[in-house]
Design brief:
single chain, 131 residues, alpha+beta, five-stranded antiparallel sheet, 42% strand
């Protein structure tokens, strides 16, 4: 992967992506627009796709930091473009600029950092925490 390599894809916002699905109890209320957590998930997917050629058997990439601004609402049914651009290494961490666009322009942007991990080792650590 080289500096300024990008991954872009289009995505149609679905019901499952809306902030209105967040409430856990009565009184929790959120609008029927793209949820920030879902925007971040899509940004992570774009960055992770850039890292696929770097992975060895048993490895995955995981997000370790996200710093984003969700700057505009997007309705269900809208098509958005998701983009991640590799910007540099920070030790063993891979840093990306991430952004989403709707038909009016930028709807969210920020930075995202990922690391390569061994999936079995990660799960073993997680299981130890449950004991």
């Amino acid at each position: 992967m080289n500096i300024n390599d990008t991954c872009e894809f289009d995505y149609i916002v679905e019901d499952k992506d809306l902030a209105s699905l967040l409430p856990l109890k009565d009184g929790d209320a959120f609008p029927t627009v793209l949820a920030t957590y879902r925007m971040i998930s899509l940004m992570e997917i774009a960055a992770s796709r850039l890292m696929i050629p770097l992975l060895k058997e048993g490895e995955l990439s995981v997000g370790v930091n996200v710093n984003v601004i969700h700057s505009a609402p997007t309705l269900e049914g809208a098509t958005i473009k998701v983009k991640a651009t590799f910007i540099h290494m920070e030790g063993k961490l891979f840093a990306f600029d991430v952004e989403i666009f709707d038909k009016t322009g930028s709807a969210g942007k920020g930075t995202h950092t990922r690391a390569i991990i061994n999936n079995e080792k990660l799960l073993a650590v997680a299981k130890k925490k449950e004991l």
